[in-house]
Amino acid sequence: MKKSLSFSLFALLLFISFNSNAQCTPDPQYTSPGIYPDTTTNLPHAQEGQPYSTVMTQVVPQDTVINFIPVTIDSVVVTNFTGFPANFSYSCDNPGCSWPGGTSGCVLITGNPTVGQAGTYPLTGYVDAYAGGLGIPSSYTVDGYKLVIDPAAGVFEIKYSAVSVYPNPATDEINFKFSANGNLEIINITGQVIYQTNATSSTINLDIETYVPGVYFYKFVSGNKIYTGKFIKK
């Protein structure tokens, strides 16, 4: 008999990652059972041409009530979700996207929206909840989350030939070659700007020996043009 758990939070509808090896860390400020942000706050907006990254934190309760009977939550599993546009994906902080009752977890959502993708994308999550030591899950469908991609601001141009990056992948040092002056930012997979400089020379040699291996994004702003791309640290 299918049980109806009383927590819509079992909708760990949580979302995407650019790289299956990327991981996130649950936000420790959240301690009450639930998903953060909730559907009222919803996900931060993305923008065409800008690398996108956000983390959702979920706090799984230790127990719930089924048919007026208290039961222990064994685990909650995100099994699938639909509605994301191209160039978006997700990864959890564990390979199975499964969290035991009484613990916190997170999902890292990343993407690289391109010009022409502006719009609102309703998302649907699919979740299995296991309780009371039973091996048969209660399955849930959760709606209410959405990804909004805003149009590019001003004159936005993606033109990779304007910025040369080599070697890529790189181990200890990576070189940026520009056709104009501008501002360079390096952004990690969680969306944090970890390096920024005003590029007044045609070439920048960046020491990345201490960078954690994985995918990084760069953004180069020159006048009213923005150039974006990514590189891999081995």
SSE blueprint and pairings:
Elements: E1 34-36, E2 46-47, E3 52-59, E4 63-66, E5 69-82, E6 88-92, E7 98-100, E8 104-111, E9 119-131, E10 138-150, E11 163-166, E12 173-178, E13 182-187, E14 193-199, E15 203-207, E16 214-222, E17 225-233
Parallel strand pairs: 2-10
Antiparallel strand pairs: 1-3, 3-8, 4-5, 5-7, 5-9, 6-8, 9-10, 11-12, 12-15, 13-14, 13-16, 16-17
Beta percentage is over 45%
Separation, N- and C-terminal Cα atoms: 50 Å
Give me the Rg, rounded.
21 Å
Global geometry = elongated
Q: What's the CATH class of the largest domain, please?
A: Mainly Beta
Helix fraction bin: under 10%
**How would a crystallographer describe the biggest sheet?**
6 strands, mixed
Q: What do we call the CATH topology of the largest domain?
A: Immunoglobulin-like
H/E element sequence = EEEEEEEEEEEEEEEEE
Q: Could you name the CATH homologous superfamily of the largest domain?
A: Immunoglobulins
Structural class: mainly beta
- The total of helices stands at 0
The domain count comes to 2
Question: What is the number of beta strands?
Answer: 17
Which blocks of ≥5 consecutive residues have pLDDT under 50? 1-21, 154-160
CATH architecture of the largest domain: Sandwich
Q: What would the average pLDDT be, to the nearest integer?
A: 80
